[in-house]
Write the C-alpha cells for this entry.
Amino acid sequence: MAASERIKSIIAEQLGVKIEEVTESAKFIDDLGADSLDTVELVMALEEEFGIEVPDEDAEKMATVGDAIKYIEEKTSASS
C-alpha cells in the first residue's frame, strides 16, 4: 500500500470518517470534523506508523490531508 493510502486509512480510522471523505483537499477541522485533541492523536498515530517525529510547529501547519501526506512523504524519503 502506498504511503498516501496508508495515511488516508489512518486518518479515516482516527477520525471515524469514511475513507471516501479523506481527500487530499479535505481539511481536518472544517471537512472531517476533527477537534484539537483529534489532531494530536492523529499526529501521534502517524508518527508511530511511519517511525517519524513531528514537531508541534510542523503539526500545526498541517491543515489538510494533502499537507500531511506531503510532510510524511518528505520526512520518510529524507530518512531512508
User: Anything to note?
Assistant: The CA atoms of residues 18 and 32 lie 10 Å apart.
